[in-house]
Write a structure and sequence with these properties.
The structure holds two protein chains of two kinds.
Chain A lengths: L5 E12 L2 E13 L4 E5 L6 H8 L7 E6 L2 E2 L5 H10 L1 E4 L11 H11 L4 H14 L15 H13 L5 E5 L7 H16 L3 E5 L3 H4 L4 E6 L2 E7 L10
Parallel strand pairs in A: 3-8, 3-9, 6-7, 7-8
Antiparallel strand pairs in A: 1-2, 1-4, 4-5, 9-10
Chain B lengths: L1 H14 L1 H39 L3 E6 L17 E2 H7 L5 E16 L2 E10 L1 H6 L4 E4 L4 H5 L4 E4 L1 H8 L8 E4 L2 E9 L14 E5 H8 L7 E2 L1 E6 L5 H15 L10 E5 H44 L1 H9 L4 H38 L7 H27 L3 H6 L2
Parallel strand pairs in B: 4-9, 6-8
Antiparallel strand pairs in B: 1-11, 1-12, 2-10, 3-4, 3-7, 3-11, 5-8, 6-9, 7-8
Helix pairs in contact in B: 1-11, 2-9, 2-11, 2-12, 9-11, 9-12, 11-12
Bound molecules: adenosine-5'-triphosphate and magnesium ion.
Chain lengths: ~240, ~400
């Protein structure tokens, strides 16, 4: 098997609270390989978002190691993490998180601005990805002109624009109805078929069923890690 | 990258036009005030400097004792305490280069059907030298004219214009107190003196002629005023001491008796006037700078609000790869752009008002290129200084907290 895109070992995160240190993650081991499509599930408060924030280099772990593309990023400086987020990772959020004053095209192109890429290249790349998610004709519209499902497609295009090694999505369908959710999941499926690695968090088993692999969290630990194809329908909680 | 960021700063400014405009207004008023105050202050300094340069340098006037308190033009109760011999003795003193006894008063001038009232100065040729007063047409009178009390006159530009109109005054004869005087020269223009009097409204004639034919003083040879010029600013104290000692000795004043004359350092008076305008100019600038400061605080205030409002945006930008310095640059750029735009408008407004003041009141204003440069440097500094704290606050936000912000 190829080298993993992500390997975490003994990853732990504790938050300081009024009642003392609260361990949100207590030693997680996981490897994500190129072409993987993982759904992370688990009850509320089990540490899924905490884990995704660490994978996304938005936060640093209290203990453990995190190898991203072979490099240990557990203790990197803030700006170095920003560069990783820009070049290696793509984010899709529950709330879409497009910038409201920018056209869709500019939204999609924004990561390229921070990568220092020239205007023409940015424009071309953004157009291409908007076409790919089927929204090329709205390139010059503002985000509030299109529906939630369409906004999430734009957000996916933005996540893809820097050709990342990995897409991270924390409840990407959480704000969408079931029909639109299916559309988004079909898009993720197509992207994964093209070889893009995806890790997403969801509460819904039928959404998780789109993924190839399902990882279940409970109280800050991984309690199961199974291939969807081998165990269709997954396990009951 | 910078171009893209400038575009974004522009968008951000346009997103809330009224707020941006009001923030800018603070800068507009601040810079406008600085420009107006500098124009007025520098104008005043320029006017004083101009006047001082027409006065002549290193000058004393020695006034006869009966005039230490009364006005120069009022009639004298007794004989003046100074005389021409005093003046001659003074010119022997070390460091003295010109001594001019003068007798002046206002008289009516008549030429043909025209008449004009003007200041008449009876003096010696040294007066013109001491005051560095040039002749632009014709010639000055000489010492021989003073000795033989000839009826010749050199006249100022104002007199020439009002009495002779378009005619060339040189060689023409005008009358002062029924006496015919031949105009032999026209003086170069000097404009107003420090008291605001028109120095070109002057007729200069030989002292002897003035005393005999014009003023008719019973005390021939006595004068009310002597102008003395020292060879340099450094020798002025020495000259003052020398004159005091000389006059006390010549007037036989014993120890303990007060001086019967009064010395006034014209150059020092001018210098203090110049210093006053300088101080005024600095004060005006300082007051105006306060409004600039207030404008800057306005920018800081709005930038802080903007950072809070856009916390989520900052989080998104960080998530997709903005480094701290990218966020810092973005917000600094916005502050500097508001500051610059405000500065530009303020500059135009200030110039317009300064020109308006000049047009309406005739007050001298000076608009220098360096003032504009200073204004721009100040705008950039204010933008960076007051934009720094909010921008740094934005750059230091925690991405997760920022993304969670509603
Ligand atoms: N910044 C924080 N400070 C303190 N405690 C936190 C913080 N963030 C998360 N926690 C706690 O850590 C635990 C895990 O939170 P996390 O957001 O990872 O859960 P989750 O699995 O994503 O839940 P959900 O399904 O509701 O999104 C929770 O008990 C939460 O209260
Ligand atoms: Mg969560």
């Amino acid at each position: 098997m190829a080298d993993p895109v992500i390997r975490v070992a003994g990853l732990a995160k504790s938050y300081e609270t009024a009642a003392g240190l609260f361990p949100a993650l207590r030693g997680v081991d996981l490897a994500v390989y190129p072409g993987d499509y993982i759904a992370i599930m688990g009850p509320s408060g089990s540490g899924k978002s905490t884990f995704m924030n660490l994978l996304g280099c938005l936060d640093t772990p209290s203990a453990g190691d995190y190898f991203l593309a072979g490099e240990n990023v557990a203790h990197m400086a803030k700006d170095a993490l920003a560069v990783l987020r820009n070049r290696t990772l793509g984010f899709v959020f529950q709330g879409f998180n497009l910038l409201p004053r920018m056209t869709l095209q500019d939204n999609v192109a924004l990561p390229l601005v921070y990568a220092g890429i020239g205007k023409e290249t940015r424009r071309a790349a953004a157009r291409e990805l908007l076409d790919k998610v089927g929204l090329g004709k709205y390139a010059d519209s503002l985000p509030n002109r299109i529906s939630g499902g369409q906004q999430q497609r734009v957000a996916i295009a933005r996540a893809l624009v820097n050709k990342p090694q990995l897409i991270l999505a924390d409840e990407p369908t959480g704000n969408l109805d079931s029909h639109t959710s299916d559309e988004i999941m079909r898009l993720f499926g197509e992207l994964n078929a093209e070889g893009i690695t995806i890790v997403l968090v969801t509460h819904e088993p039928d959404i998780a069923a789109h993924a190839k692999r399902q990882v279940r969290f409970l109280d800050g630990e991984i309690v199961s890690d199974q291939l969807t194809a081998v165990v269709p329908g997954g396990e009951a909680c | 990258m910078l171009k893209a960021m400038l575009g974004e700063a522009w968008l951000a400014m346009g997103a809330n036009r009224l707020r941006t405009a009001l923030t800018m207004l603070g800068m507009v008023i601040g810079v406008g005030a600085v420009v107006i105050m500098m124009a007025i202050g520098q104008g005043a300094q320029y006017a004083v400097q101009q006047t001082i340069s027409t006065m002549g340098s290193n000058l004393y006037i020695v006034l006869s004792g009966s005039f230490t308190t009364a006005g120069v033009r009022s009639g004298s109760a007794g004989a003046p305490t100074l005389n021409v011999a005093d003046a001659e003795a003074m010119s022997e003193l070390d460091g003295v280069i010109n001594v001019a006894p003068t007798h002046q008063g206002t008289r009516q001038l008549v030429y043909g059907s025209q008449n004009w009232s003007s200041q008449i100065i009876g003096t010696t040729p040294a007066y013109l030298e001491a005051r560095a007063w040039s002749i632009v047409d014709g010639a000055a009178f000489g010492d021989s004219d003073v000795r033989s009390a000839t009826r010749v006159a050199v006249i100022g530009k104002t007199v020439a214009e009002n009495l002779f109109g378009d005619e060339d005054p040189v060689g023409k004869t005008m009358r002062i107190q029924q006496n015919p005087f031949m105009v032999i020269g026209v003086l170069g223009s000097k404009g107003q003196n420090l008291d605001g009097r028109d120095q070109d409204d002057t007729v200069i004639i030989p002292l002897t002629t003035a005393q005999r034919k014009v003023f008719g003083t019973p005390f021939l040879g006595s004068v009310r005023m002597i102008m003395v010029q020292a060879d340099s600013a450094e020798s002025m104290p020495k000259v003052e001491a020398g004159i005091t000692a000389l006059l006390r000795q010549r007037h036989r004043l014993r120890e303990g008796m007060p001086d019967d004359f009064f010395m006034r350092n014209l150059s020092a008076a001018a210098e203090s006037e110049a210093a006053t305008t300088r101080t005024m100019s600095i004060l005006l600038g300082a007051i105006a700078s306060i409004s600039l400061l207030v404008g800057g605080i306005g920018i800081m205030n709005i930038m802080l609000v903007s950072v809070t409002e856009r916390t989520r945006e900052i989080g998104i930008r960080m998530a997709i790869g903005a480094r701290q310095k990218d966020i810092l640059t973005q917000f600094l750029l916005e502050a500097v752009m508001i500051s610059f735009a405000g500065c530009l408008l303020g500059l135009l407004l200030g110039l317009a008002i300064a020109l308006g003041i000049n047009f309406a009141t005739g007050m001298v204003i000076v608009i220098s290129g360096s003032a504009a440069l200073v204004a721009f440097a100040v705008a950039a500094t204010v933008g960076i200084f007051f934009g720094w704290y909010p921008a740094r606050k934005a750059a230091r936000l925690d991405p997760i907290e920022a993304l969670r912000y509603q």
